[in-house]
Amino acid sequence: MTITAVGCQANERMDTMKKRISTVPFKGTPEQEAKLRAVIDEKKNVEGSLMQVMQEAQEIYGYLPLEVQTIIAQGMGVSVEKVYGIATFYAQFALSPKGEHQISVCLGTACYVKGSQDIIDRISEVLGIGAGECTPDGKFSLEACRCIGACGLAPVLTVGDDVYGRLTKADVDTILEKYK
Ligand code: FES
Fold first, then answer.
1. 66/48 Cα distance (integer angstroms)
2. What value does the mean pLDDT of the chain take?
């Protein structure tokens, strides 16, 4: 019972992070667009296939920028608002690409209690992006994650495969500096 309640709190923390359209310039290739249009042609007359097309588009591009949402909307005969609404509602869809360095801050209970929100806030302040976003130069992306099983090191963040624990807000600048 307690475990479920704790899990729900973590989910709520993640859910409060709103997705925003990426400011990273779109770099889709003609090959990617041809693949997406082939998927649309195959599925456009299949009822209820919009989400599947969006999933396949995300596999092709890695995320769903507005340009891709527009191609999907036009091809599937629905409004861009509808595609955008689905993309923002379901956690599985990303509106920003992954950065060269992917920063992930644990918002699981142990880390949250030890101040991981301050850590994520400081990263946002330094990089100018929120969770789920990527810096315009494509260098860093930031996300919040659930427990990564290193609670003894709380609060924890990872940059790619590197793990940093027992963090204070003051550590953030030093860590980011290493990847600039
Ligand atoms: S809660 Fe952060 S590693 Fe477990």
1. 21
2. 90
C-alpha of residue 154 to centroid of ligand 1, in Å: 6
Asked whether the bond before 136 is cis by omega within 30 degrees of 0, the reply is: no
The band of 128, judged by pLDDT with boundaries at 50, 70 and 90, is very high
* pLDDT number for residue 37: 98
**pLDDT: which is higher, 62 or 25:** 62
Q: Is the CB of 109 under 6 A from ligand 1?
A: yes
- Expressed in angstroms and rounded, the spacing between residue 107 Cα and the centre of ligand 1 is 7
Which phi and psi (to 5°) does residue 69 adopt?
-60, -35
Distance 129 CA to ligand 1 centre (A): 23
Beta strands in the chain (DSSP E): 101-106, 133-134, 140-145, 157-159, 162-164
Which pLDDT does position 10 carry in this prediction?
61
Mutual orientation of helices 66-76 and 50-61 as an angle, nearest 10°?
A: 140
